[in-house]
Design brief:
single chain; about 450 residues; alpha/beta; 2-enoyl-CoA Hydratase, Chain A, domain 1; OB fold (Dihydrolipoamide Acetyltransferase, E2P); 3 domains; seven-stranded mixed sheet; five-stranded mixed β-barrel
């Protein structure tokens, strides 16, 4: 009986706690801040909050925007979640909503502008080695259409929205045909982009009928902030290069040491950040690991560069594209840059490192000089040849080879051609230069003697 009563009491307490939480949720407005650059991590953060709101059903979702803009693919993901996935009312309060932030703000059902706020300046740009440049007309046209479509879906001024993207659209009293549309708080309301002006977030909620609601701020958690930093394209590229490079260096060294540990840590940080801040899954991490293994096989097992190397690079590239999507080109570009810098550093440092010392020949091979008696055959001093006779072993033109007894000597004639087999006599010796002359028969002698 006591156990039964204790069980009933526990169930009542759990039910009461659940009811209290449900009541708290149903009487609150969730504030979701977008107060930095919009990235894939921002999109994932917003989508997770919207999914949670669909389950717990707060009174409304309020997006507070103070952003310079960001990645187009991340913007599109956020806008799609607000327009098509949110099952509770969506509100937006803008302090500054530029570029991608402008479309996110306009995608909410209601939009309020705070004092001193602005919205617009959404010209799409692309980053090149020489700096930022506007995208081509094809892409700009697609963005104009997207801004018009979102504005029409929320009953806003589609022409003004398109003017935020295209400087060629003139809006009388706001922008010429050479200016992008950027609106103040008052202009945004007057031109049917925003619904109201408000002095504060609480004032905006009061005007929309949520004056008595509690505001529950759902900012990024510490892990989400760290994941956002780790999945920044530059940081992600550095982690990818350090991870792969560390493991490949470890393969060439005995045991397991610092390079391998650093490589594993870098890949682990990249994987953790990708899991939290992007739609990455186990398959994407397995692709990166498979790429590392294939590259190792190419380096250690298969000579040259063939199928395994190509498949390894392809696996890493596919994983990066799946994880970072619209930012994949930036990540791959920085990876190539950092990879080249790492290879150059290794080529500079490695030859003089302890690792290379095991493979480097450090013992000098020398042949000790054998003692030679001066004036004897084999001596560097050939003065002993003066006046001696020998036989030309090769044609002297004028240089060639002659034999004196059993010794072969490089000789030179005085300029005359001496055929091989001729008898010669040494005229003089100057260091290593031995000058010879062909012997001629004595005219007064007997030729048969």
């Amino acid at each position: 009986m006591r156990l039964a009563l204790a069980g009933v009491a526990a169930l009542v307490m759990v039910a009461a706690g659940s009811a209290a939480r449900a009541q708290t949720t149903s009487n609150s407005v969730w504030l979701i801040p977008i107060d930095s650059e919009i990235t894939r991590a921002t999109a994932q953060f917003v989508k997770v909050r919207i999914q949670r709101a669909n389950k717990q059903q707060p009174l409304a979702l309020l997006f507070y925007l103070d952003t310079p803009g960001g990645q187009i693919t991340a913007m599109q993901s956020i806008v799609d979640a607000i327009l098509n996935q949110a099952q509770v009312p969506t509100l937006a309060v803008a302090q500054n909503a530029f570029s991608a932030g402008a479309l996110v703000a306009m995608s909410a059902e209601k939009l309020a502008m705070l004092p001193g706020s602005s919205i617009g300046a959404a010209l799409p740009i692309t980053l090149t080695p020489s700096g930022a440049k506007p995208v081509n007309e094809k892409f700009n046209s697609a963005m104009r259409g997207e801004f018009r479509s979102v504005a029409e879906a929320r009953g806003r001024n589609a022409l003004v929205a398109a003017g935020m993207v295209d400087p060629g659209i003139a809006i009388p009293g706001i922008a010429t045909d050479k200016e992008l549309v950027t609106l103040t708080a008052q202009e945004a309301v007057a031109n049917n982009i925003a619904n109201i002006q408000a002095s504060s977030v609480r004032d905006a909620l009061q005007k929309w009928g949520y004056g008595g609601a509690a505001i529950q701020r759902l900012g990024p958690t510490l892990s989400e902030r760290l994941a956002s930093a780790l999945t920044n394209p530059i940081v992600a590229a550095a982690l990818l290069v350090i991870g792969i490079g560390g493991l490949l260096i470890e393969i060439f060294t005995p045991g397991f040491g610092v390079p391998g540990g650093i490589g594993l840590l870098a890949l682990a940080l990249l994987a953790a950040g990708a899991f939290i801040a992007t739609p990455a899954g186990p398959l994407d991490i397995l692709l990166i690991l498979a790429g590392v293994v294939l590259l190792a096989v190419e380096v250690l097992v298969i000579p040259g560069f063939g199928v395994a190397g190509v498949l390894g690079i392809a696996a890493v590239v596919i994983a990066v594209i799946r994880i970072f999507q619209g930012s994949a080109a930036t990540v791959l570009g920085y990876s190539a840059l950092f990879g080249g810098a790492l290879v150059a550093a290794l080529l500079w440092v490695l030859p003089n490192s302890k690792v290379a010392a095991a493979f480097r020949l450090s013992t000098r091979l020398t042949n000790p000089p054998s003692p030679v008696t001066p004036g004897a055959p084999g001596s560097a001093d050939r003065a002993y040849l003066a006046g001696r006779e020998g036989v030309a072993l090769s044609d002297l033109r004028p240089a060639g080879v002659a034999r004196f007894d059993e010794e072969r000597v490089d000789v030179v004639s005085e300029g005359d051609f001496i055929p091989a087999g001729s008898t010669i006599r040494v005229l003089r010796v100057e260091g290593m230069r031995v000058t010879v002359r062909q012997n001629t028969p004595d005219p007064g002698g007997d030729p048969d003697a």
